[in-house]
Amino acid sequence: MSSDTDSEAQEKLIDLAAEFYDQMDRGEIPEMSIPTRTKSNIVFDEDEDVWVYGERESTRSANSIRGARKLLKAIYTIEFLDNQLEEDRSSTLRELYYLSESWDSNEAQFSDQDESNQLIEDLEIVSDVRREDFHMRPEESGAKVMGPLLLREQTRRGDREIHCQKDVGQGGYQIPNNPDTIEFLENDAEFVLAVETGGMRDRLVENGFDDEHDAIVVHLGGQPARATRRLTKRFHDELGLPVTVFTDGDPWSYRIYGSVAYGSIKSAHLSEYLATPEAKFIGVQPEDIVEYDLPTDPLSDSDINALESELEDPRFQTDYWEEQIELQLDIGKKSEQQALASHGLDFVTETYLPERLSEMGVL
Hints:
Elements: H1 4-25, E1 31-35, E2 42-45, E3 50-53, E4 57-61, H2 65-86, E5 91-92, H3 93-99, H4 113-127, E6 136-137, E7 144-146, E8 149-155, E9 158-163, E10 173-174, E11 182-187, E12 191-195, H5 198-206, H6 209-212, E13 215-219, H7 226-239, E14 243-246, H8 251-262, H9 271-274, E15 280-283, H10 286-291, E16 297-298, H11 301-311, H12 319-331, E17 333-334, H13 347-359
């Protein structure tokens, strides 16, 4: 199932390796420059409402033993990726780490998976090719979609047409590693509801929320994988669907919303590909905790520090978020999505979500 995208990825990888060769041929010490991947070099693009890398760069140079090892590992990895694309195969990030054990140079082997993961990210940045186009996969995220959508997915066994309600079980349609292999054929959806927890996702599906309100329910599975964020963005950009995000009511969950809407620091080089700045936050809001008298847990010291940090975060510097975060710090409490069940199993689908979605102009 080799494609033009595969050929382009191969060409850019070979160009990278050729640049090292050309540098040596000119009598220069080989080097590779990439944006400095530290928090201090991440800037919030106010025009695009996403995180991007700043102008500072770091140089990986062979003028030191440590730098030479990094470039050696890069060259071995480029060769591996080129062969993988040539053979139309794929591998996981975890497999790459173990595969390096078989390379004929001990110096090229990775010391841990963080090192191999980071190198793949480096190659993404300098080649301007996404790891999905290198045929590199993360471990399974398990994220699922349920809703009134007919799609066509490219697979090794040919194209498959799948309706994300009629052709799937209660578990829903599993998002593939590369959502750009999906073609949208037909849909009757009115909006996308991205849900943090599996328990809440199951509640919505069991109660028929997707059917009753023509919603595409996306399970984020905690901090969402790249594939989940990419597909969510495609729903918005290509189908014109409003995107809403429903999480727990704590600072870590607000960051899940932030990664869907504005991108994450770790994947700043892909924000325009992954982030959906128009996404709206449903809740659980701190004001919901008060209004519905939800069961709560006290804020921990780390929760408080995270909330105070969010007050300084450009993503949350709006009147709405400042009001909600200040309220949460004032009441000193947090609450989970499932706490809404204290008002009955149907409360979330019959009352809470319809009311919130109406307030937001989605329903």
